[in-house]
# Entry
Amino acid sequence: MASPAGPVLSLGQPLLDQLRAAAEAAYPEECCGLVIGRPVPQAAGAGPPSYVATRLVAANNRHAEPRIAFELDPATHLGVLRQLRQSAGQVPAECLLGHYHSHPEGPAAPSPRDRRQATEPDHIWVIIGLAQGRAQAISAWQAPAAADADFTAVTLVADPA
# Structure
C-alpha cells in the first residue's frame, strides 16, 4: 500500500458515528464543533504528519444563516482552548486539531466560503456531506498556510476502536 502524500487523521468509529449523527440532527442547518486529539510522534523525514482524534466537542452554530454557513460559538471555542491549556502538562497531551462542520445538500469538500474562512493555518477541517438529511461522506482537509494556497487533502483512517 502506498503511503499517503498528505497528512493522516485517525478517527475511531465512535467519533465517525458522532459526526454523522450531529450532521443529521442539525439538518437542514450546518452542524459544527471542534476536533481534539494529538499528533502521532514519528521520526524526522518519516513521511507526512499523522494525528489521532481523541474526542469531538459540539458547538452551537452562531452564523446568521446556519443553513448555508457556520460560525463556531466563541464561548465553546475559548472554553476548549482554556481546558487544553490547563491540561498541557498531561501525557499524552491533547491539542486542538481543527474543527468539523456539515454541508447540507453539499459535498464533503471545502466550499468557496470555507476557503475564505480558513484563517488558522494547518488546522484540519472535517466536513460531512449530506443528501436529503443523510450523511453521505466524511472527508478531512488541512487549511493552507498561505492565503493564495488551497486546502490539502487529509487521509482519513477509520479506527475500529
Observations:
- The chain has one domain: 8-150+153-159.
- The helical segments are 13-26, 74-86, 112-117.
- The beta strands are 8-12, 32-39, 50-59, 95-103, 124-131, 134-142, 152-159.
